[in-house]
Amino acid sequence: MENILEVKNLHVSFDTYGGEVQAVRGVTFDLKKGETLAIVGESGSGKSVTTRALAKLIPSPPGRIKEGEILFEGKNLAQLSEREMQKIRGKDISTIFQDPMTSLNPTMKIGSQVMEGLLKHHKISKKEARKRTLELLDLVGLPDAEKRIDQYPHQFSGGQRQRVVIAIALACGPKILIADEPTTALDVTIQAQILELMKDIQKKVDSSIIFITHDLGVVANVADRVAVMYAGKIVEIGTADEIFYNPKHPYTWGLLGSMPTLDNEEESLVAIPGSPPDMLNPPTGDAFAARNEYAMEIDFVEQPPMFKVSDTHYAATWLLHEHAPKVEPPLAVQSRMKDNLHANVPGERKKEGDRS
Amino acid sequence: MGKYIAKRAGYMLITLFIIATFSFILMKLLPGSPLTAEQKVTAAQRAIIEAKYGLDQPILIQYFKYIGNLVQGDLGVSFQLKNQPVTKILMAGVPVSAQLGIWALFIGTFFGMLLGLLASIKHNTVFDYGANIISVLGISIPSFIFAGLLQYFVGVKLGWLPIAFWGTPQQMIMPIISLSIFPMAISSRFLRTEMIEVLGSDYMVTAKAKGVSNFALVFKHALRNALIPLITVMGPMAVSLMTGTLVIEQIFSVPGLGEQFTRGVLTNDYSIIMGTTLFFAFFFILVILIIDLLYGIVDPRIRLSGGED
């Protein structure tokens, strides 16, 4: 399939009083037309910064794209001026933000906020824009759109606001839709609704979607491919099935092991010990080495390259080196690998498995 | 909306009544009388004058007479200024003070907002620091120093502008400038602080992600959200500027309310003091009402519940 976006060796740093915080340290991935790529990782792993850098939404200063390329339709976004970026933002690349309670302008009518992008990027009249806005509000499942369009954000609940935020992002039919933890700030029942809506939209629009989350249950639900980020790097990337049933990186094992499953009651949850490294002084070797029970000497000295597992599956761990000792993943992950019919979200994951 | 304003007007009357009562009591508690300064008054003359103004009657009677007159819009007559009614004296001072105050408020707020906006957009640059210094100076240096400097350099040394009195545009420039420095400094400070917070908020990122230009980000999205605290401080300031600023009016010999109030206090002129106090109170309450209505216009979240909207 054709690539719509290629990110090559992206570095993003923040200049603080304490020094340079290297939030993203050489991220490389591509996004195919119409696919949903999930980026998972702990807080502070650089997943949000990576995607904000794609639309150049990093406040600068202190943030800056230190090096790397963001290739979109033959243009390197990293080199574009602010004015040129304004033509791309909202039209070709748009973002759904995390917290609907703060991401809408409190003194502006909902309709105007949805319409703004349309009026900016398409040469259409106010009347047409309003008509299109009503359709959008309808698409995101906001009832009574005719009345709601002239209301203010405080007249909406959290879930409804997130629907509005989604409508704003969809307004111009973006080629790339970045969903930055769109369900994290919502309570569980609303999370499920918004997730349903996202899946619904996935089918209706032909945008490619980058879905950021730290919730692996969500990943299983929506993603075609998964990139696992740790300490500003992608440590493993592959199709959703490869990541869930044949994970190679110890960090991915840790993430999967710490994910609660419904079918294995007696198993206790395994937490990943320790905490992520300080990005002011990232470690010389593999950033995960200090927390990794499978770490070898080389892990503390040199960063592992991306080893190829299959055409679609890569992982950055020395365990994949031909001289590395053979290690078995933790039991929780092994049982998942052995019997991929018993997945976290049974219905969905099984379907994925059947298809491939 | 109409219902809300009617309700507020009712509260206003009650407040004014309470203020009138308190100012009456406080005046009576003050030592001395309007006649204290007049050494030449004999006991007999004093008795005649007191009888004329009703000052010999029991305090309760005086109070009811005062309130009774007040209801009819009569603030009494001045003891000092040849028996002129207080309302007439007020009416002479109010337009002058209001003119001076409104100009100072308008010019001060306009330039203050400009300064604050630029400082917030150019946050942490030389420009921001410069604006910061200007507003700190404007807040901490009293207005009479600016007034004195202006009078000396522009009025006396350069001879460009008249140094006193009120009426021609030339006479108005220096008092207005000296009076506008403080509101400029305050509005610049408040707008800058609030704008920096608003510009860093999540919904500004949302707007930016839509491809909104920097100009529209500031003026369409941020400014309105940053106005609330500014309105809160500027309201009471508008009152104090428009109801006569004692010092500036004295320095430039502006015949405004402030001048009359000072004279009333110095001569124990009961009816002038109570009249002006009541007028200040009325004006202040009115401005508070206007501010509350403005809040609703600027911020839909505090739109008044009594309205149809």
Protein described:
The complex is a heterodimer of chains A (356) and B (309). Chain A has 356 residues and is α/β, with parallel strands linked by helices. Chain A has 2 domains: 3-223, 3-Layer(aba) Sandwich (Rossmann fold); 229-344, P-loop containing nucleotide triphosphate hydrolases (Rossmann fold, 3-Layer(aba) Sandwich), CATH 3.40.50.300. Chain A contains 12 helices and 12 strands. In chain A, the strands form 2 sheets. In chain A, strands 6-7-8-3-9-10-12-11 form an 8-stranded mixed beta sheet, sandwiched between helices. In chain A, strands 2-1-4-5 form a 4-stranded antiparallel beta sheet, covered by helices on one side. In chain A, strand 9 and strand 10 (233-239) form a beta hairpin. The two termini of chain A are 16 Å apart. Chain B is an all-alpha fold and 309 residues long. Chain B has a domain at 92-258: MetI-like fold (Orthogonal Bundle). In chain B, 75% of the residues lie in helices and 0% in strands. Chain B has 12 helices and no strands. In chain B, helix 1 runs antiparallel to helix 12 and helix 9 runs antiparallel to helix 12 (270-298). The N and C termini of chain B lie close together (8 Å). Classes of the chains: A alpha/beta (356), B mainly alpha (309). At the A-B interface, helix 2, helix 3 and helix 6 of A face helix 8 and helix 9 of B.
